[in-house]
């Protein structure tokens, strides 16, 4: 993907990384992406101050 986010949408895991599904590598990246995203967005979302940056 050239652009992995849109307003209100974030692609993670295999959708965002050029990885082969062989060996289950993509699911590990998806979990890491989900944790990093949650850590970064939890406070802004709870405080209603999230905005996408292009």
How is this structure best described in words?
The protein is mainly α and 54 residues long. It has one domain (5-46). 41% of the residues lie in helices and 7% in strands. It is built from one helix and two strands; from the N terminus they run E-E-H. The protein has one helix spanning 25-46; strands spanning 5-6, 9-10. A hairpin with a 2-residue loop joins strand 1 and strand 2 (9-10). It is elongated, with a radius of gyration of 13 Å.
In summary, what is this structure?
The chain is mainly alpha-helical and 54 residues long. Helices cover 41% and strands 7% of the residues. It has one domain (5-46).
List descriptors.
54 residues
Whole-angstrom Rg: 13 Å
What is the first-to-last residue Cα distance?
A: 15 Å
Shape: elongated
| Number of DSSP E strands | 2
One letter per element, helices H and strands E, the order comes to EEH
Strand content: 5-15%
Average pLDDT for all residues: 75
Low-confidence stretches: none
What structural class do helix, strand and pairing data support?
Answer: mainly alpha
Enumerate the strands of the largest sheet in spatial order, edge to edge or round the barrel.
1-2
Topology:
Blueprint: E1 5-6, E2 9-10, H1 25-46
Antiparallel strand pairs: 1-2
């Amino acid at each position: 993907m050239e652009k992995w986010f849109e307003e209100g949408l974030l692609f993670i895991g295999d959708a965002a990384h050029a990885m082969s599904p062989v060996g289950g590598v993509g699911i590990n990246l998806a979990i890491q992406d989900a944790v990093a995203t949650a850590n970064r967005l939890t406070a802004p979302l709870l405080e209603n101050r999230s905005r996408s940056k292009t």
